[in-house]
Amino acid sequence: MEYNGGSVVAMVGKDCVAIACDLRLGNQALGVSSNFPKIFPITDRIYLGMSGLATDLETLRERFRFRVNMYTIKEEREIEPQTFAHLVSSTLYEHRFGPYFIEPVIAGLSKTPSGDLKPFIAAADLIGCLNFAKDFVVSGTASAKIYGLAEALWEPDLEPEDLFETISQTLMNAVDRDAFSGWGCLVHVLTKDKVITRTLKSRMD
Amino acid sequence: MARRYDSRTTIFSPEGRLYQIEYAMEAISHAGTVIGVLATDGVVLAAEKKVTGKLLDLSSSKEGGYGGSGEKIFLLNANVIGGVAGLTADANSLVNYARTAAQRHLLSYNEDIPVELLAQRLCDLKQGYTQFGGLRPFGVSLLYAGYDPHYQFQLYHSDPSGNYSGWKATCIGANIGTAQSLLKQEYKDDITVKEAISLVLKTMSKTMDSPTLGSEKLEFAVLMLDPKTKQPRAKIYKPAEIDALLLAEGLMKKDEDTEMKGV
Amino acid sequence: MEVSFALTGKDYVIVAADTTAARSIVKMKTDQDKIKILSPHLLMAYSGEPGDTLQFAEYVERNIRLYQIRNLYALSPSAAASWIRRSLAESLRSRNSYAVNLLVGGFDTTTQEPHLYWIDYLGTMTEIPFGAHGYGSYFALSLLDRYHDPDASLEEGLATLKRCIDEVSKRLVVSPDRYKVKVVDKDGVREVEL
């Protein structure tokens, strides 16, 4: 996990979710790229973040895109966050005894039977053990630090702009204390009608 | 005499013909017409539906999905739509093959499959059934309307033998003679999507059996570039959108009763 | 010790690699070309385990050429880089993996843009404005952070490259003495003398 570095966090708000990552790609202590996003859109209302070994991150991104595209085109509807979480989990567990070194974080808005959208977040370990949290999920080299800040800053039912501020402060301050994460951050806030995407500048050391 | 060479697809007749292939093409010439027109800023596809009726459940095509009833026009990939004519069951199998081939290309090269390459992939499969023994060829012709950065907008046609070719405007299915001569007369090289839509619908209305066009007999799709992202975007029309389009083009016979209800 | 650099500028990519073939502590020859021309607008500098490097580079070269023959046009730089990355990622989890690090530079003729990709033997890939492999990266990257300009002319780009090479010569104990430099732009690939 420390080979390339990187961290991801997701948080629940009031009728919205946020997911954020840092932008560093390293080769152990050497920084290679300051523009390496670790979050990818899966559908209009599911975002997947991954931290860990960068080669597996790219391989899994391609594999998930393949499987979600085939799902979408055959089912003629977009995949639901819960379904996608289990797709991620089973893909990882398929490699139980030679795993992809990735810890995924999923943020999405799921449809309720009444047609409303409900915030959804989940994380998994590298062999696909799912963790459905109600507040926030973390992964990556700065995960312990993110936990600390999230525990202090997060509160229930944050509005989109407040949630953006909370997740940004949590991630930026956590990665500043981590040598393997940082070099800028990327934040997405998913709301009912739009996705707010912002790139944050941070310390470059 | 010819009958002796019918039963196997892979045996030439003494005149050097493959009868099963010709029969497959014959089957296609009874299928619903599909017309494709290539414009400067997009590609237009329209298809005549044969399976209709009051009791047919079309609820899935009215809301959700990609539009279309799943009979004639399919989304093959983000940058390609396909129109099929022939045996629907064979077509479904080919559409599935095309979608998988397109996704495999995306997986290998991280780019949308070039349109001609997708046509080639299907033709390789189709050709196999004209050569290897004991199997029936696919009774399907396809039109591929797509976009890639190499040749921009493109329109291809492929037939059961595994031949394919690129076109500015073409059609497959029943009454193609009439449709093709109409297209030849009316097509201009600098045609826009707007004009192509009119041309396709006009041609369609002249080739179809029924005198009036309506969403219950028609599928319709357009592939254009998204003005913002500059990426190709396919739009397969839903029944209500087709009716609105036909109304705007002045091709739908107005139904007095429904108009009264609206008041 | 092997060193390779690459940087983009206005409508071009420069790729440079040392020309030393070494075994243990002995220089066997000093005129080896470690930059393959994959297609009319695509370059690849390779370094790593001797044997693996050439074997893998030729495998890539032939496959890219095959695609071009089959489809009448070459793969775009991003498609080629993605394919190469996948080959390495699949190789990594096979019984005999290739230990090869790459810098893939190309000019996309459909969009008229230069692209440069940094790929390591694990299959890690990222698009970058400049990059390096080997011990040279520890000296060159900080110089490039300071002097790289994405809109620089070819002369300015080559001057920046010269700074990197001079720095490596000055500070690295086992620095190579000769480099091969190739450029790719809208006119294709060519070799330049520094």
From TrEMBL, chain A:
<protein>
    <recommendedName>
        <fullName>Proteasome subunit beta</fullName>
    </recommendedName>
</protein>
<dbReference type="InterPro" id="IPR001353">
    <property type="entry name" value="Proteasome_sua/b"/>
</dbReference>
<dbReference type="InterPro" id="IPR033811">
    <property type="entry name" value="Proteasome_beta_3"/>
</dbReference>
<comment type="subunit">
    <text>Component of the proteasome complex.</text>
</comment>
<keyword id="KW-0539">Nucleus</keyword>
<comment type="function">
    <text>Component of the proteasome, a multicatalytic proteinase complex which is characterized by its ability to cleave peptides with Arg, Phe, Tyr, Leu, and Glu adjacent to the leaving group at neutral or slightly basic pH. The proteasome has an ATP-dependent proteolytic activity.</text>
</comment>
<dbReference type="Pfam" id="PF00227">
    <property type="entry name" value="Proteasome"/>
</dbReference>
<keyword id="KW-0647">Proteasome</keyword>
<dbReference type="InterPro" id="IPR016050">
    <property type="entry name" value="Proteasome_bsu_CS"/>
</dbReference>
<dbReference type="InterPro" id="IPR029055">
    <property type="entry name" value="Ntn_hydrolases_N"/>
</dbReference>
<dbReference type="GO" id="GO:0005737">
    <property type="term" value="C:cytoplasm"/>
</dbReference>
<dbReference type="GO" id="GO:0005634">
    <property type="term" value="C:nucleus"/>
</dbReference>
<dbReference type="InterPro" id="IPR023333">
    <property type="entry name" value="Proteasome_suB-type"/>
</dbReference>
<comment type="similarity">
    <text>Belongs to the peptidase T1B family.</text>
</comment>
<dbReference type="GO" id="GO:0019774">
    <property type="term" value="C:proteasome core complex, beta-subunit complex"/>
</dbReference>
Automatic annotation (TrEMBL), chain B:
<protein>
    <recommendedName>
        <fullName>Proteasome subunit alpha type</fullName>
    </recommendedName>
</protein>
<dbReference type="GO" id="GO:0005737">
    <property type="term" value="C:cytoplasm"/>
</dbReference>
<comment type="function">
    <text>The proteasome is a multicatalytic proteinase complex which is characterized by its ability to cleave peptides with Arg, Phe, Tyr, Leu, and Glu adjacent to the leaving group at neutral or slightly basic pH. The proteasome has an ATP-dependent proteolytic activity.</text>
</comment>
<feature type="domain" description="Proteasome alpha-type subunits">
    <location>
        <begin position="5"/>
        <end position="27"/>
    </location>
</feature>
<comment type="subunit">
    <text>The 26S proteasome consists of a 20S proteasome core and two 19S regulatory subunits.</text>
</comment>
<dbReference type="Pfam" id="PF10584">
    <property type="entry name" value="Proteasome_A_N"/>
</dbReference>
<dbReference type="GO" id="GO:0019773">
    <property type="term" value="C:proteasome core complex, alpha-subunit complex"/>
</dbReference>
<dbReference type="Pfam" id="PF00227">
    <property type="entry name" value="Proteasome"/>
</dbReference>
<comment type="similarity">
    <text>Belongs to the peptidase T1A family.</text>
</comment>
<dbReference type="GO" id="GO:0006511">
    <property type="term" value="P:ubiquitin-dependent protein catabolic process"/>
</dbReference>
<dbReference type="InterPro" id="IPR029055">
    <property type="entry name" value="Ntn_hydrolases_N"/>
</dbReference>
<dbReference type="InterPro" id="IPR000426">
    <property type="entry name" value="Proteasome_asu_N"/>
</dbReference>
<keyword id="KW-0539">Nucleus</keyword>
<dbReference type="InterPro" id="IPR023332">
    <property type="entry name" value="Proteasome_alpha-type"/>
</dbReference>
<dbReference type="InterPro" id="IPR050115">
    <property type="entry name" value="Proteasome_alpha"/>
</dbReference>
Automatic annotation (TrEMBL), chain C:
<dbReference type="InterPro" id="IPR016050">
    <property type="entry name" value="Proteasome_bsu_CS"/>
</dbReference>
<dbReference type="InterPro" id="IPR035206">
    <property type="entry name" value="Proteasome_beta2"/>
</dbReference>
<dbReference type="InterPro" id="IPR001353">
    <property type="entry name" value="Proteasome_sua/b"/>
</dbReference>
<dbReference type="InterPro" id="IPR023333">
    <property type="entry name" value="Proteasome_suB-type"/>
</dbReference>
<keyword id="KW-0539">Nucleus</keyword>
<dbReference type="Pfam" id="PF00227">
    <property type="entry name" value="Proteasome"/>
</dbReference>
<comment type="subunit">
    <text>Component of the proteasome complex.</text>
</comment>
<comment type="function">
    <text>Component of the proteasome, a multicatalytic proteinase complex which is characterized by its ability to cleave peptides with Arg, Phe, Tyr, Leu, and Glu adjacent to the leaving group at neutral or slightly basic pH. The proteasome has an ATP-dependent proteolytic activity.</text>
</comment>
<comment type="subunit">
    <text>The 26S proteasome consists of a 20S proteasome core and two 19S regulatory subunits. The 20S proteasome core is composed of 28 subunits that are arranged in four stacked rings, resulting in a barrel-shaped structure. The two end rings are each formed by seven alpha subunits, and the two central rings are each formed by seven beta subunits. The catalytic chamber with the active sites is on the inside of the barrel.</text>
</comment>
<keyword id="KW-0963">Cytoplasm</keyword>
<dbReference type="GO" id="GO:0010498">
    <property type="term" value="P:proteasomal protein catabolic process"/>
</dbReference>
<dbReference type="GO" id="GO:0019774">
    <property type="term" value="C:proteasome core complex, beta-subunit complex"/>
</dbReference>
<dbReference type="GO" id="GO:0005737">
    <property type="term" value="C:cytoplasm"/>
</dbReference>
<protein>
    <recommendedName>
        <fullName>Proteasome subunit beta</fullName>
    </recommendedName>
</protein>
<comment type="similarity">
    <text>Belongs to the peptidase T1B family.</text>
</comment>
